[in-house]
Amino acid sequence: MTARGEVSNARATLPIRADLAGRRPYGAPQLQVPVRLNTNENPYPPSTALIDDITHAVAAAAAGLNRYPDRDVVALRAALAGYLGHGLTSAHVWVANGSNEIIQQLLEAFGGPGRSALGFEPSYSMHPMIAQTTATRWIPAERTDDFRVDGAGAVAAIRRHEPDVVFLTSPNNPTGTATPLEVIDAVCAAAPGIVAVDEAYAEFARDQAATALALLPAYPRLVVIRTMSKAFALAGARIGYVAADPALVEALQLVRLPYHLSAVTQAVGLAALRHTSELLSSVAAIRAERDRLITDLRSIGLQAADSDTNFVLFGRFADRHAVWQALLNRGVLIRETGPPHWLRVTVGTEAETATFLSEITALTAGRADVMLP
Ligand SMILES: *Cc1c(COP(=O)(O)O)cnc(C)c1O
Fold first, then answer.
1. Are 184 and 215 in contact (CB under 8 A)?
2. Does domain 48-274 correspond to CATH entry 3.40.640.10?
3. Are the folds of 26-47+278-370 and 48-274 the same?
4. What are phi and psi of 139, to 5 degrees?
């Protein structure tokens, strides 16, 4: 892979799996610009108190690094179960290096050659991408024009395709749309296999009661995926987790690599969870900033989708790449993703969001040619 993303001549001659040949790795640009609003990170860095606690925890872990870490990650699983509530215990929780590794383990255990996974698009691009690398056939199903998962349509698609795994991202990335619990319930009732509800943005939802955790007692094949990368402001630590029936958690351990989660990562996760209320204190501010941003985008004549996440999908642009590039030229990096003609912006600090707003206003004000109706 070259810097610009083409497949190099050298790679093209490698004896790579036929189904991977010519593909590109995941690649949201990581550019050093003043305002980075492209990968849905939490804009607030850890506090001094949290940095100190992490430093001490890592120092203690360092003293034992000659030994392998706890293979079963028991302490961190128990702490995460305590955070989730809903009567969950460490036996209901599994942890990995980011929820992307959770998704990989799920597809290794329940997908794979001869099996299929279905998702409602537009949604998170890593679901089909990890399906591909685990040789799981991907079945795209549709969302409505306003980005919802229609209950009857979802049930019909599941009955028609009988997928081994159903992915339902709620709140959804890149649209911001939450799916009501009744629809998730109907999907679980119809699905012949695993239902994976990806709740990476759960803490940002307007209706906090809408979590699929509430459905776990009713559905032993339901898994609820969470992450510390977004609300917990810990993307750099790579900690994702899942809540499910204990038998399902045991099944995931069949495919995990031995000692997959380093002692350092486990120590960082435990230290961070001791600061849960501090870490989550930014969530309320981000939600308020998000709602303001939506109102402001609409007030300058743009469309902005309702959002239960820390980002906003907005548009619609005749040439979205030109708008993305013009913003980048002005030092504001957002994401060119989602349905055609839309762009996605992560909610940053108040100052970052204000900069984005003034730049997008300058780019679009009085420019009927830039926008689509
Ligand atoms: C950001 C995101 C994740 C998080 O991935 P990590 O590997 O935990 O950082 C998972 N699912 C969705 C839908 C996301 O947008």
1. yes
2. yes
3. no
4. -115, 105
pLDDT tens track for 59-101: 999 999 999 999 999 999 999 999 999 999 999 999 999 999 9
Indicate which residue's Cα is closest to atom 3 of ligand 1: 200
Write the residue with the smallest CA distance to atom 12 of ligand 1.
200
Helix, strand or coil for residue 232?
A: coil
Q: Which atom of ligand 1 is nearest to the CA of 99?
A: 8
What token pair was written down for 104? 């990989």
Could you tell me the residue ranges of all domains in the chain? 26-47+278-370, 48-274
Quick one: pLDDT at residue 165?
98
Fold for 26-47+278-370, please state it. Answer: Aspartate Aminotransferase, domain 1 (3.90.1150)
Residue to probe by mutation, ligand 1, list 95, 100, 120, 346, most atoms within 8 Å of CB: 100
Q: What is the mean pLDDT of residues 174-186?
A: 98
Mean pLDDT of 13-42: 88
Q: pLDDT of 299-309, one tens digit each?
A: 999 999 999 99
3-state secondary structure 241-262: EEEECHHHHHHHCCCCCCCCCC
